[in-house]
Amino acid sequence: xxxxxxxxxxxGTVLAPTVREAYADLPLVVGDGAEKHAAALVxxxxxxxxxxxxxLAAIRVGDRRWNLKLTSGIDIxxxxxxxxxxxxxLLHLDHDRGLLKRDIAAVDLRxxxxxxxxxxxxxEPGTPEQSPVAPEVPTxxxxxxxx
Length: 147
Fold this sequence. Notes:
Helix content is 22%, strand content 24%. With 147 residues, it is an alpha/beta fold. It is globular and about 40 Å long.
């Protein structure tokens, strides 16, 4: 299936080969196991409408977690679990500090106790006061997690 586009149902069953443009309103998911986990990701993203609208593609990594590619070019690296907590942290940082409007390449949410930001090629690091991630900003680890 590598290099081809297929329509997949909610259970992960591959229905038919297609051209991407014919289903532009459906999310593009790629990677090992993406077809089986796409429905759960779509359900997880549903409450995050602003982020969902910016989604260009979801990349399944190691058949265990997702990276989200936004239309702005920013990559969002999600954790294996507590994805909702990580997304809430991301939106909190975006709301309070305009994180997703900055010149950054990636936001790494894989660790529960910190958020890492990789600057885009021409971006200058800011001072701690200007930094999109300051120590007082809550992260996914500051909320209750199911174990």
